Amino acid sequence: MYKAVKGMNDVLPGAGEAFLESALWEHIEHVAARVLGQYGYRRAQVPIVEETQLFARGLGDATDIVSKEMYTFSDRGDRSLTLRPECTAGVVRAYVEHGYGHKAPVQRWWYMGPMFRAERPQKGRYRQFYQIGAEFFGVATPASDAETMIMLHRLCTELELGDVTIKINSLGDPESRVAYRAALLDYLRPKAKQLCESCQSRMETNPLRTLDCKRPECKSVMTLAPDVADSLSLAAITHFKEVEALLAGAGVPCVREPRLVRGLDYYTGVIFEFSTSALGAQDAILGGGRYDSLVEELGGPSTPAVGFAVGVERLALLLSARTKISSRPDLYLIPFPEVVAECMALAEDLRRTHGLRVEVDLAGGKLKTQMKRADQSGALHVMVLGADEIASNTGKIKDMRSGESLPVVLISDEIVCMITKA
Ligand code: AMP
């Protein structure tokens, strides 16, 4: 008996764990595609595997993801490849490779797909997990940051996620980051011995990572760390305040979180995270921010950008605790063997003319077994058709909730009328 690899999930109809119900995932993807589309985002699809160097360069060697969590392997030509741990680097690679920076720099792209990180699996944290994310290239204004967060707020509302906290912060422009890095190092150097081993070794190269470390010893050192706000340039402060004002104007509540940094090195300027108290330890639903240097760093023309990634498992965990979403056929048709073709034709007509979800039982067997399958399908209506029904052009539709059966003429309009009336 084979089992799925540890930390990797099967998403199936009727899955044992409610958050892995495929209908719920379909619902999430559907709502996200609709909301993102309403803001002008178009779908981008890039490979799951990229050259290792793309991630090392793009995400930063000192990040946990690159240094500890990547699934890296040599292919048959001895090239070092990596299963993508996130999608921004790949999307930026595609943007640069296909010349968008020159021919049409302003692009709003979204994606959904699996990401891979060798983290310790636990509730809400997996080794293969899915993200819905988006990248907005070519605009550097506070309005582009604000629109991104307003859109995400809409997405949370439309998904009916309940209470979500929006935390925002600014890492500032390059000038501010140099100043903050120096202030942070001044604070950290005398306390280096109190930090975890990994923070001690990366402190000099990338002190910001210490703010993101989950180890209790580092967390306690960082409680008194300098606030990035004190190092921000006037331009960075003005930008941040404008984002806050735009969010307030749009009725999107947010709080400034002075210690918020993101786990990847490419972020610049405004960053944000949406979290919930309903998920336990893994409380972040999504994260994102500006990354104004990445396009250039990966070989494109200097292009500002802002983006985010939402964790689908976390959305599914939240939603499965609040609602039950399943995909049920509108009608389950059970044909006797001699009228299978007629039944299929009727089902086809119902799908084509009325867009109904009609499942035809083609597995056969005893009527009792077929009725059991109809029940398991979750269908609200069932109709059994034999030669007599086809000959007389009338059947009986059973309402599975009330148990009542009512006669109906076997014409699409009549069937739809009865199903929707119920
Ligand atoms: P990140 O790419 O680390 O900024 O993460 C963005 C979002 O992806 C997080 O807020 C989570 O919702 C989700 N996420 C990140 N890592 C994992 C993981 N290992 N398992 C499940 N979801 C994850």
Verbal overview:
The chain has helices at 22-38, 52-59, 64-69, 88-97, 100-103, 142-158, 174-188, 197-202, 208-212, 216-222, 234-249, 294-297, 312-322, 340-354, 367-377, 387-392, 412-421; strands spanning 42-43, 49-51, 71-74, 80-83, 107-116, 128-137, 165-170, 255-256, 270-275, 284-290, 305-311, 331-335, 358-360, 381-385, 394-399, 405-409. With 422 residues, it is of the alpha+beta class. The chain has 2 domains: 18-173 and 233-322, Bira Bifunctional Protein, Domain 2 (BirA Bifunctional Protein, domain 2, 2-Layer Sandwich); 331-421, Rossmann fold (3-Layer(aba) Sandwich). The strands form 3 sheets. The chain has an 8-stranded mixed sheet with strand order 1-5-6-11-10-9-7-8. Strands 13-12-14-15-16 form a 5-stranded mixed sheet, with helices on both faces. A 3-stranded antiparallel sheet has the order 2-4-3. Strand 12 (331-335), helix 14 (340-354) and strand 13 form a beta-alpha-beta unit. Helix 6 runs parallel beside helix 11 (234-249). The model has no long low-confidence stretch (mean pLDDT 94). The chain binds adenosine monophosphate. Adenosine monophosphate binds next to strand 6, strand 10, strand 11 and helix 13.
Helical stretch tally = 17
The figure for the number of domains is: 2
Averaged pLDDT: 94
Give the N-to-C terminal Cα separation: 45 Å
**What name does CATH use for the topology of the largest domain?**
BirA Bifunctional Protein, domain 2
Helix amount, in percent?
Answer: 25-40%
Strand order in the largest sheet: 1-5-6-11-10-9-7-8
What are the low-pLDDT stretches, counting only 5+ consecutive residues below 50? none
The CATH superfamily title of the largest domain: Bira Bifunctional Protein, Domain 2
Count every beta strand, where a strand is a DSSP E run of 2 or more residues: 16
Give Rg in angstroms.
27 Å
Report the top-level CATH class of the largest domain. Answer: Alpha Beta
